[in-house]
Request: fold
Amino acid sequence: MIPFLTYPLAMLALATVPALAAIYILRNRYRRKQVSSLLLWRFQVQSKAGGAKVHRLQLPLIFFLELLALLLLVVAATGPHWQLPQSQRPLIVVLDDSFSMRATKDGISAQTSAHDFLEKLFRQQPPPNTRLVLAGTEPRSLGASVKNWREVENLLPQWKCWSPGAAIDSAITLATELGKQQANLLVLTDHKPADEKISNPRLEWRAFGSAQDNFAIVNASRTVFGEQDRCLLEIANFSGGARTTKLLVQTGSNAPQSSVISLGAHENQRLVFNIAFSAPSLHAVLEKDSLAEDNEVQLLPPIRKRVRVQVALTNENSSTLVSRTLEATGLRAAISENPELVIHETDTVTSSNSWSLRWSGDGATNAYTGPFILDNSHPLAAGVALEGIVWAAASATNSPGDVPVILAGNVPLLSVREDVAGRRHLTLNFNPALSTLQNTPDLPIIFFNILQWRIAEMPGLKESNTRLGAEVILKTTGETVTVTQPDGEKKVFPKTGGELALETPVPGIYSVATGVVTNLFSVNAMTADESDLSANATSQWGQWSEDTQRRLEEASAVWIFGLLAAALLATHLYLIASGKGAK
Reply:
């Protein structure tokens, strides 16, 4: 093929060709000079270029070597490229990373079948350049291109099939971008494509699953319920007909309790029961079926954080009202030493760990009936209605730095300020003697929001049970955090501050160590779409086209011209050294 030139301006160097020719053409044109004798001359040769006669121009061999080498160097300087046909297209393999790939039939999972197919594909023929893309909840590429089965096999341990879903369409889009519209795409999954008629001639879809009946735990929770914990288990029957399974529930070291669950086709059943809050764990297991990963859940006790509150009000009625309201929230700790919230009437110096609530408004005679303005985006205003109430407060304006949460016109009723240490200082402008707010649920709700907000800012985990793939929020203290996964893998986060979002790539019990404190949380595989195996199949859709059009790839030809020029110059040097170049 005819090469194209990257730097065509380099052709200006051809101006050196006439200069070279002039050197050789004009070298024998001498002026006539008369001498007395040629006796002392070494060679008695008559000049062929002198005189009045026209002689045939005779140039030496080295002239042509120099001319050709010069032309080759000029062409090399232009940076020639040409397009070469490639016999093999690169291959990009999209791997379904969802946990439904773990479903087995006759003891063989879809993941194992897909792995064996990929190995057979590479061992039967010379493999092309290959890249692997994992299709989890978000697609990601596994390293750079690989060229043989050994390199592919080194990447496959990252294909764990624990994702709660497979974004295959997004993974195909990523693979198309990586392949620059030229690569063959191979999808290995356990279900058929949404559109069984694949129009992309570069896409081949292979499924290795099988449609099977399956029971699964699709929802589970354990929440605080007074002095007990309330548990919920939701069982689903992903089958075409009515089926029965056995459920075993074990709390702590107690003997497991067995019950029979009978469900119709595609029917769900919720089980709600209470257990002692002291039970260290709840373990629920269904009878074994084709997909074991969704038959088991572990639920740890919910996080019961309480706020140590010190009530330092001098007004006895206000102190009694506050104490009674705090007890109604259920979030006040039994002790008040080293308080995390101090409720007082005047500005006082609090400890480095405590927030403060300044109660102002005693003696205020301004009664407001609304309309009240609430910042509904603030956590203190969640669930507050203030309908039909009377709120007595002192006429005041915002103090510098205070952010109002509840106002009556331009009078702040509840405001908050944050100091340089990150502590919150709240101001409640409220006179209960002339108000009806304390006779409605709104006052307990406001105090519940205050304590709940304080709990949210405490170090530690936000929750103790979550779903596979969800993030668990950890409030850190600036110390090193070490997370140990159920498979033993450890991740260390040095000197973190604020909130840390922990990933949950595998199910099981996670350990989180922050300084000398260690917390646990449980992750369970609960995704109804992955547990429903009715659409799984084993087949092939689409096929790479066998068209005669070959893929073209640009290749530099500079080295070819440079190599030829070097060979000619080496020959030129040899002829000069041997004295044969002038002939």
User: Anything to note?
Assistant: Residues 4-29+41-83+555-578 form one domain. The longest strand covers residues 214-225.
